[in-house]
Amino acid sequence: MTKTWFITGTSSGLGRLMVEKLLARGDTVAATLRKEGSLDDLKAQYGERLWIGHLDVTDTAMIRKVIDSAFSQLGRIDVIVNNAGYGLFGAAEEVSDAQIDRQIATNLTGSIQLIRAVLPYLRAQGGGRIVQVSSEGGQTAYPNFSLYHATKWGIEGFVESVAKEVAPFGIDCLIVEPGPTETQFAVGLDHARPLACYDNTPAGEIRRMLTSGTFEVKGDAARTVDAMIATADGEKPPFRLALGSTAYASVSQVLTERLRSLEEQKEVTFSADRAS
Ligand SMILES: NC(=O)c1ccc[n+]([C@@H]2O[C@H](COP(=O)([O-])OP(=O)(O)OC[C@H]3O[C@@H](n4cnc5c(N)ncnc54)[C@H](OP(=O)(O)O)[C@@H]3O)[C@@H](O)[C@H]2O)c1
């Protein structure tokens, strides 16, 4: 049976590929973007099955307007994909206040407000699925990506809580966590002005890897999107889906370490209970 999807950030990368693949298999897609014209080729090919909306996810009023018009024009929407996002690159004291505000407004507040805007519609139609594109960086942390991590860890906490609130309405959530994947992500990075004091630190090392092109990107965008769609199609998808061997290795390592550390402190942890 065909489905209807709503996807943000579809001018390039994972979002664009997802639109292409869903249309090619016969689904209907409401695709939103900032760059007018980016999907004109697909519109010419698929006509009515592609609904295009202009949306900058940092504009909450615009989110509500686009969601209202997508549901009123398309009726039921089965899957909402919160995909729009980008990375801010720089050590915490290198990035500017304005860069921080934009990163949080896009990746965190944008995703939160989109979910808040769709929930009344999903409840009214008796259910639906929310796919939140996070990152392996929603569970791990590299130097120079602290603000990006803050948004991805933040959205994971938000979605995990909301999933429990809305399960009784037949709404479920899937958090997707790709590792480094070949899209426009590296091109779209917002770079902070470097401070020389970080040159000989892990942050400086990551910067050199990025600028010299030695930062390893193993993820294939098309295969990542195939896995996202196949999992989102499932009757009972997992709550989190790590994608790519890099994501698997890093998430596995941090979870193992976190559990080991928790167990090691068990006595101290329990000592904080009220004496009964
Ligand atoms: N590629 C990776 O290595 C990787 C790994 C883990 C997670 N992710 C996540 O995957 C998602 C998609 O990224 P991608 O890899 O496909 O990169 P991409 O090719 O750069 O695509 C990002 C998309 O987000 C859109 N976008 C950015 N800011 C926006 C805003 N304020 N409002 C609306 N749209 C906005 C961009 O639109 P414009 O063209 O208008 O800028 C573009 O369509 C992001 O959430 C990213 O954090 C990527």
Protein described:
The mean pLDDT is about 95. This protein has nine helices and nine strands. The protein has about 280 residues and is of the alpha/beta class. The chain is about 50% helix and about 15% strand. It has a single domain (about 5-85, about 95-185, about 220-270), classed as Rossmann fold (3-Layer(aba) Sandwich), CATH 3.40.50.720. The strands form two sheets. A seven-stranded parallel β-sheet has the order 3-2-1-4-6-7-9, sandwiched between helices. Strands 5-8 form a two-stranded parallel sheet. Bound molecules: NADP nicotinamide-adenine-dinucleotide phosphate. NADP nicotinamide-adenine-dinucleotide phosphate binds near residues 56, 58, 183, 184 and 188. Belongs to the short-chain dehydrogenases/reductases (SDR) family. InterPro entries: NAD(P)-bd_dom_sf, SDR_fam, SDR_oxidoreductase.
Question: What's the CATH class, please?
Answer: Alpha Beta
> CATH fold name, please?
Rossmann fold
Structural class: alpha/beta
Shape designation: globular
Number of separate strands: 9
Q: Which compounds are bound in this model?
A: NADP nicotinamide-adenine-dinucleotide phosphate
Query: Which strand order do you get reading across the main beta sheet?
Result: 3-2-1-4-6-7-9
- CATH level-two architecture: 3-Layer(aba) Sandwich
Domain module tally: 1
Q: Flag low-confidence runs.
A: none
Query: Could you give me the name of the CATH homologous superfamily?
Result: NAD(P)-binding Rossmann-like Domain
Evaluate the radius of gyration. Answer: 20 Å
Number of helices: 9
Biggest pleated sheet: 7 strands, parallel
Helix percentage range: 40-55%
Mean pLDDT: 97
- CA-CA gap between termini: 58 Å
**What's the order of the H and E elements?**
EHEHEHEEHEHEEHHEHH
InterPro entries: NAD(P)-bd_dom_sf, SDR_fam, SDR_oxidoreductase
Family: Belongs to the short-chain dehydrogenases/reductases (SDR) family.
GO molecular function, one term: oxidoreductase activity
Organism: Aliidiomarina soli
